[in-house]
Amino acid sequence: MTSTSGSGRDFGELRRVVVKVGSGIIAPAGRLDPPVIERIAQDVTTLRDKGLEVVLVVSGAVAAGYLGMGSDRPPVSVVERQAAAAVGQYQLMTMFASVFEERATVVAQLLMMQDDIEDRRRFLSARHTLQELLSRGILPIVNENDPLADDEAKIGDNDHLAALVTSLITADLLVILSTVAGVLRFRDELEAKEGAEVISTIEVGSEIDDHITDDQSETGVGGMKAKVRAARLASDWGVPTVIASGKEPGLLSRIVSGEDVGSLFVPADKRLTERKRWIAIRTRSVGSISVDDGAKRALVERGASLLPAGIVEVEGEFGIGERVDLLDGSGQAFAVGLVSYPASEIQRMKGRQSEEFLEVLGYKYVEEIVHREDLVLLDSKNNSEERFADDDDD
Q1: How confident is the chain (394 residues) per 10-residue block, as mean pLDDT?
Q2: CA pair distance 70, 63, nearest whole angstrom
Q3: Is the pTM value of this prediction over 0.85?
Q4: Which end of the chain is more exposed for a tag (fewer CB within 10 A), N or C?
Q5: Measured between alpha carbons, how far is 22 from 176 in angstroms, rounded to an integer?
Q6: CA-to-CA distance for 26 and 247, rounded, in angstroms?
């Protein structure tokens, strides 16, 4: 859908949206609030009815679990928070699954940590899983894997995770629902608590630290500072972020329609996302795949993924998630990308049709040897590692 509004906010063509909901919204008093979860489910359903793909990142596992541990208040120590999260994950997902089932929506739970995204193999695995879920109309619900987190500061930090997921699935917009209406402009702490003007638009590089408090919800972790850090991280990848109140019904629909609500973090001009910069620059190629002219045209001109039928030769030994060069008939590299299969299996599948995966390998993971969203085209005018072509598909 295209966001249009008299306010002037225009996100362009929106296809995928990440919505982060904190424990301060769904557990305002340190306990899950079923009516609020019901309302969030309705707002997300409205976005999906508009044709948007939505990934929901939620907090609240600690709030859902500490009563079951025999505690009468949210835990403070790391181990207690981890244990409470382990108890609460099931209860949290059960409640979300129930409210979305009433709306004929199947949900899927993904427990993730930053390491899952920074590791190339797990990055690809998570990406493919999310892509498959979205393609089948299933709503992914992501939560920090708190019971296994080994960083005290990160337990419950789903704001940062939401920004990473935004990059992982190449989302077009990140919405962080907070207990306040956005980043507030105020002169002192008293004014911050009593209410202040919302800063509507925040440009990349703006100094707004003087307008951020350290307030957290009872079961929250980072407060507004964590949300702003997440927004800035998403901005680095060229994705706009809106921080807005999670207390208002129907606000999600107003945001994606371009209405001037909350605080919009405007990213710099978008050329190549940080994720693709990582693919293109930070990881060295460990092998190469030569393709025929038809495959090259499909990749360059039509924005296609690399399928086995177009592969001529495979060089090097590499595993799933490794970066390789894609070579044309003259041996020149015209793209780099992350492979979905190891070199030995790509060698067996080269020149074959996708329908032959089961026959040749005995299994099929995905159809694409290199998915389009895991591929970066090199600048044809300068085939060095320092210049890369614009990628409008991102």
Answers
A1: 62 93 84 92 96 94 83 82 86 94 96 74 86 96 76 61 87 92 66 67 69 49 76 82 92 93 82 59 78 96 95 95 93 93 96 94 94 82 40 41
A2: 13
A3: no
A4: N
A5: 8
A6: 9
Q: Which two tokens stand for residue 175?
A: 């919405």
Burial of 118 (0-12, 13-18, 19+ CB in 10 A): exposed
Cβ atoms of 264 and 240 closer than 8 Å: yes
Q: What is the CATH architecture of 16-270?
A: 3-Layer(aba) Sandwich (3.40)
Residue 147 phi, psi dihedral angles, 5° rounding:
-60, -25
> What is the DSSP pairing of strand 333-338 with strand 375-377?
antiparallel
Structurally, what CATH architecture does the domain formed by 275-377 represent? Roll (2.30)
Between CA 284 and CA 282 the distance in angstroms is 7
Match 């038809």 to its residue by tokens. Answer: 294
Domain boundaries, the chain: 16-270, 275-377
Asked if residue 257 lies in contact with residue 290, where contact means CB atoms within 8 angstroms, the answer is no
Cα–Cα distances in Å, from 35 out to 27, 125, 235, 247, 249? 11, 35, 33, 11, 11
Helices marked H in the chain — which ranges? 23-26, 34-49, 61-65, 78-101, 114-118, 120-135, 158-168, 189-194, 223-236, 251-256, 274-277, 293-301, 343-349, 357-361
